Amino acid sequence: MIRQDEINITLPREDLNIILGELDGAYFADEELLDSKEDVLGLVENDAEYTESLQQDIEDIKDRMNENRRVLEFIQRELQKNLST
Q1: How many angstroms separate the first and last alpha carbons of the chain?
Q2: What pLDDT digit, counting tens, does each position of 11-23 carry?
Q3: What CA–CA distances, in Å, run from 41 to 60, 66, 80?
Q4: What pTM, to 2 d.p., does this model score?
Q5: Scanning 15, 61, 74, 84, which has the fewest C-beta atoms within 10 Å of its C-beta?
Q6: How far, in whole angstroms, is CA 58 from its chain's centroid?
Q7: What is the mean pLDDT of residues 60-83?
Q8: How many CB atoms lie under 10 A from the CB of residue 30?
Q9: What is the pLDDT of residues 20-59, one digit of tens each?
Q10: How far is the C-alpha of 48 from the C-alpha of 55, rounded, in Å?
């Protein structure tokens, strides 16, 4: 696990494109998973324990999606800065 706030690395453009694609793909996969969990949640409202578990799963997915999107947007902003200089 990385414990520094900032790390400067150099990657070949194709490797960076792979990372961006993976982050983007993970975000959209999580969107589908989130939709699925929310659909199931609507069907099992009478089971309090399962409902609580699903709600926690949904929050975890949303948190992961937000973090993936934040990182992806940061990388894209940095790329734009580098391209404009």
Answers
A1: 32
A2: 788 888 888 899 9
A3: 15, 21, 40
A4: 0.72
A5: 84
A6: 13
A7: 87
A8: 19
A9: 899 989 999 999 999 999 999 888 878 888 999 999 999 9
A10: 10
Q: Give the CA radius of gyration of the chain.
A: 17
DSSP-based three-state secondary structure for 1: coil
Q: What is the dihedral of CA 72, 24, 31, 57, to 10 degrees?
A: -60
Residue showing tokens 């696990």: 1
In total, the chain counts a number of residues equal to 85
Give me the numbers of helices (H) and strands (E) for the chain, helices first please: 2, 0
Which tokens is 37 given?
């969990």
| Cα gap 59→37, rounded to integer Å | 10
